[in-house]
Write a structure and sequence with these properties.
- This protein is mainly β.
- It is 14% helix and 37% strand.
- The protein is built from five helices and 13 strands.
- The strands form three sheets. Strands 5, 6, 7, 8, 9, 10, 11, 12 and 13 form a nine-stranded mixed sheet that branches.
- A hairpin with a 2-residue loop joins strand 1 and strand 2.
- The longest helix has 8 residues.
Length: 234
């Protein structure tokens, strides 16, 4: 499926909202072999942690802009502009994907998913994930090669790789938050989502966030200085 997405994402679409409907026939065929699974805006729920860790070949996504029709949530690859090749961070780090030791560290608490029509694999009107995992605030500098983790005592010495969907860190951002998604045991690293508050409503005192990129950080540092939180991702 991930290779299909990478290939499909490079194709130009005349109508942006056709992104998910145009792939629905293939999604339906695959779903017929795994009926217990759930299709969420181009991602299969049983493999959601890996499905969330996509990147664009060239950053060009501005989640802050609301121009144009709604296509997909910020956490789905389908929100990327048509023609931008989508890749997966964990694929480039695993020489043997099926055998590599990786472990999800993100818990899916609930999913709110509302379709625009009757097509189970088509357009979406609402897509929100309630997730629980380690969250840490990082202050970026030195071209995002290193970062300070608040309260860690290792300021400026924590290796961190950041990949923003926009291609670079916004100039007005002094700090960002990262949400742990999965660990790569043999590398002692954790792959994360870079998230930021949407400024919208909160739900039961839980903040609402959007995805703005992906990150990679030392697992021990994140484990000792991250805070276990529940977030809503839209």
């Amino acid at each position: 499926w991930y290779h299909v997405v990478s290939y499909y994402s490079q194709r130009a679409l005349t109508v942006p909202t056709d992104c998910l409907p145009a792939l629905s026939a293939l999604a339906s065929i695959l779903h017929s072999h795994a009926r217990e699974d759930r299709y969420l805006a181009g991602i299969w729920q049983h493999d959601l942690p890996r499905g969330l860790l996509w990147t664009c070949s060239s950053g060009s996504i501005d989640h802050g802009l609301q121009a144009g029709p709604y296509v997909a949530p910020s956490w789905s690859w389908a929100c990327a502009p048509a023609g931008m090749a989508v890749h997966y961070a964990w694929m480039t780090l695993m020489t043997r994907i099926d055998l590599a030791p990786w472990q999800p560290v993100l818990r899916i608490c609930s999913v709110e998913y509302v379709l625009k029509g009757k097509n189970l694999y088509g357009e979406v009107s609402v897509a929100r994930l309630e997730l629980q995992g380690l969250v840490a605030e990082v202050r970026c500098h030195k071209d995002n090669v290193y970062a300070d983790i608040h309260g860690s005592g290792v300021e400026g010495k924590t290796p961190l790789t950041l990949s923003f969907d926009s291609g670079k860190a916004p100039v007005n951002v002094r700090a960002v938050e990262i949400l742990a998604v999965l660990t790569l045991g043999y590398r002692a690293e954790t792959l994360c989502l870079i998230i930021e508050p949407t400024g919208g409503a909160t739900y039961s005192l839980v903040r609402q966030y959007q995805r703005v990129g992906v990150a990679r950080i030392d697992s021990d540092v994140l484990k000792h200085h991250g805070i276990n939180k529940i977030v809503y991702l839209v």
